[in-house]
Structure formats: structure tokens, C-alpha cells
């Protein structure tokens, strides 16, 4: 029932989150005693602060109240931003992780660390082991941002900035000629 309920609530919540100027990262509905727990995770390119979470919470709450027939029971709303341990599963996640150090576990092969550059349509540019390479999203089994306590080396940032177009972007340029 909660998964079915989440799929019915998703367009309502997504519209409210978008209206507030954010992206809906995930939506979960869980049974919590007699109540439903509606957990909404929001994100944006500029990050999400506490004031923005409160604003989104009010907007989503109003939308849920307007559509109370969908929930048909009492609910608790929890609005939050994604944690640092959120896997990078969409292009926008990679785009928002630009210049961050990421642990990449490929579908085939061993895990490695790389610094994220430009996120194209099909691949992301990564600096790993001193070399720039394009990593196709479909070849990644898991990717998670690593915590760093110091600034990244300036030469890494320069390498990623100097050559920011990914292979899939170059392919598009060739196709348009």
C-alpha cells in the first residue's frame, strides 16, 4: 500500500516542490502506526538550507491538505535534503558534485577515486589517477561523494576546467556539422 500511495502522491508532491523552486529527489511513504510517514527529499543546484526546507515543507503540506482524499488518513510530513552519502544516480547528481572527490564502483572492475568534472548527457568527465577520462553513466554500479577536509588541489580543478566538454558533447558537435 505505501508504494502504491507514493506513486499516487508523486505528481502532487513533485508539482509542489517544483513550484517552490526545487527538485524532488525522492518520495517515500511508510506506515507509522495509525499515521502515514511521508518523507520528501528535495535538492537544487545551489543546495538546500533550513529556511528553504521549511518553505518546501509548507508548500508540500498545503498540497497534501488540498488532496487529502489521496492520503485518506493522518500523516506526518518529513522534508529534508539529501545526505552526503546519497548515491549519484542521475546526471544532475553528478553535475552538483562537480569538483568533488567521488568513489566510483564500475559495473566491471575495481572501485577507484575520481574528481568530477563536466556531466554530459551520457557520461561524466573524471580525473582519476592523474588522467582525465569519460565515464559512461551506464558503466557505474555505484558512486558516492567522499568527505574531504581540505580544498582540492588547484591543478586538479584546472585540469577539469581546461577540458570541460565530455565525449558525448563532442559527439553532438560532430553530428551538428
Which structural traits does this protein have?
36% helix, RimP_N, Alpha-Beta Plaits, five-stranded antiparallel sheet, 6 helices, RimP_N_sf, SH3 type barrels, three-stranded mixed sheet, 2 domains, Ribosome_maturation_RimP
**Mean pLDDT across residues:** 87
Helix count? 6
Could you state the CATH homologous superfamily of the largest domain? Cation efflux protein, cytoplasmic domain
Assembly type: single chain
Give the topology.
Layout: H1 2-19, E1 23-32, E2 35-43, H2 50-66, H3 68-71, E3 75-80, H4 91-96, E4 101-106, E5 112-119, E6 123-128, E7 131-136, E8 140-145, H5 154-162, H6 167-176
Helix pairs in contact: 1-2
Function: Required for maturation of 30S ribosomal subunits.
Subcellular location: Cytoplasm
Keywords: Cytoplasm, Ribosome biogenesis
Structure explained in plain terms:
The protein folds into two domains: 2-80, 2-Layer Sandwich (Alpha-Beta Plaits); 91-164, SH3 type barrels (Roll). It is elongated and about 55 Å long. Helix content is 36%, strand content 32%. The relative contact order is 0.12. The chain has 177 residues and is α+β, with helices and mostly antiparallel strands. It is built from six helices and eight strands. The chain has helices at 2-19, 50-66, 68-71, 91-96, 154-162, 167-176; strands at residues 23-32, 35-43, 75-80, 101-106, 112-119, 123-128, 131-136, 140-145. The strands form two sheets. A five-stranded antiparallel beta sheet has the order 7-6-5-4-8. The protein has a three-stranded mixed beta sheet with strand order 1-2-3, with helices on one face. Mean pLDDT is 87; it is low at 171-177. A hairpin with a 5-residue loop joins strand 4 and strand 5 (112-119). One of its GO terms (cellular component) is cytosol. Pfam families: RimP_N. InterPro entries: Ribosome_maturation_RimP, RimP_N, RimP_N_sf.
